[in-house]
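Comment thread on ticket #2218

A.B. wrote:
> Attaching the input chain for the structure job we discussed in standup.
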Amino acid sequence: MDLPLNEDLVSGLLTALNQFTIMEFQQGIESIDMGGLRWVYLLDKATGLLFIAAGGKEDNAEILRARLIVIRQAFIQEYIKDDTTAWRKTWTGNVEKFYPFKETIDQYYSDWIAAESVMNVAEFFDVLGIFQQLLFNVLATLNRVPENTRDSIHNKIEDLFENYKNDEFIKENPELGKISFSRESGVNIITINPNNCDMVLVQKQVINLVVDIVETVKIYVGFYKALKFFIEEDVFEYILNNIGLLHRLNLDKFLLKLFLMK
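C.D. wrote:
> Ran it. Output below, let me know if you need it in another format.
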């Protein structure tokens, strides 16, 4: 939206608020309502970058966060890739080189706005947002395992997606082909446009992929160690914080069984 704001002052204020909560409460901000807007925060520890999105107070915070994850992934893939050390060394505080990325954000935003006109799209994006966040947390656990184990898991997930892409059903439904995975940016599922697909089929495919990925982690890491990592990466905290929404979407028992059972 077009607001007469000093971007540097606003970003400095929002960052300072987050830093204050970390210092005082040992936990960063997830979302706040301020100035007639809803602000959602996403900290990327590997790069030291804080991503913040703003929407109206009527906007669902989980949908905003899921979309912010997509933007975070796109930004890292565009400017940082997997070399966070070089990124930190070359950062000078000059943001002008990132201005072209506004076009990427605008394109995502246009796609999402167009999709919101579809019947039941709020529930559709609720489901995608939930799985986007959970996959983000699950794949974050791989930073806790030895490099050879992490490579094996990545290889297995890449094989899963290769088979997924080559499936005739996916080829006949191009929108499903937008679901993607890379080692640098993780899994991206929120870019699907419900205008161009059967939302029920999309949800089914996403659920199958989530099950395959979680089971892969449990197999390679070991069930009890994977369970420990899931706890440390706030998988269960996220489920409990959103248990009402998950129950309404009939996903609460499914997710608890997926993460808690061998």
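A.B. wrote:
> Thanks. Noting for the ticket: The longest strand covers residues 37-44.
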